Predict the 3D structure of the following.
Amino acid sequence: MKRLFYIGIATFLSFASQAQEIVSLKRCIEIGLENNYSIRIIRNEQIISNNNATIGNAGYLPTVDLNGGLNGTVNNTRDERKDGMVETASGIASETANAGLTVNWTVFDGFGIQAEYGRLKELRAIGELNTRLTIEDFMANVSSEYYNLIRQKIRLQNLTSTLNLSRERLRIVEERYFIGSMSRLDLQQAQVDFNADSSAMLNQLEVLHRSHTNLNRLMAIDNVEERINQKDSIIHPNPFLDEVDLWKSTMETNVTLLLVQKNQLLSELDLKKAKSRNYPYLRLNAGYNYNGSWTETGVNDFQRRLGLNYGVTIGMTIFDGFNRKREQRNARIEIENRELRRQELELSLRTDMSNQWMAYQNNLNLWALEKENVVAAQENHRIAMERYRLGQLSGIELREAQNSLLNAEERQSIAEYATKLCEISLLQLSGQITNYLLPEPDKAGQ
């Protein structure tokens, strides 16, 4: 067991020695923003939305087409006259060439073009919001894993300390056993406790490795086993968040709420586009054409025509089977549904904010309480260890004090991490996570 334990420790230290750069949470986020595959994909989709939001795609501009062609025939002919004469010819070739330039322009279609252009611009804004949503989710995930890695390192330190205490206890028991002042039962119990702590240590190394690889995956680092040398070694929850400010910010900048509002605008533009069919439309067209023909028979060997054509079309749909009314009714219902979804989302956000705020306050109180418990458990263990060395305390009682200290340290670590997770969730809900986790350079150290 000892051999396996030291192998595990050596493996962990060899990985840790590979770390080069000391990285902060901000640096991890910056690396991920450059490399993360989901972010790169959503940014490309945003570029597509930006490319589509043009007046040409909306239909404001005319279309210009250029076309041309060449056709030819080779015929054998036989003509029989009424007087009995027969004329035959073979291999008679004729060719026709044409080219034309045409322009078509819809000048007015009942404000449908304006509605389509507004829709394309809203889709562009939705693309930007989707990018922001992906980035905020990414930042929350990286932050959670970054602090989870710190928590797992702290737990490893606590287990290491516990293991060292068990090793010292085993040493004392072995010495006393060999001089006959302790029984073999005491020695075996000390050995069992030492092995149990060694096993917990090895399991924690696996948990720590998993946290490292998860963080590297989020940052899209090819070598997922690369060890990150974190700048932070402890978790500092922020106890100064304000619920009123958070809710106000949520109503103004929550990205999911903004997306629902944009979808409301899209529904209104769909109604406007459906109403455009109630109006007449005006279309212009013009063209310039060339036609040329060559033939081996007839009076003329070659004919050419150049000509300009133009036209104006005014029209209006009088009856279309009541489809316009149906589409407009459906569009109005969709607007109502969008409004209902917005109200539902606001209620959901209010519920999430209330629950997260309650959890945040509760974990802050637990964190303060557990810090006091750790101090008391440390003093209790110190006294127990001194009494054990003097032979005034049994091994079982010492083990209880040791477990009490480890449990108190674990509860404090859990409370710190849980408080930080609530803090991250509140900032994400309120749309402040970007400003909080990527502060200005002069505030980066605060």
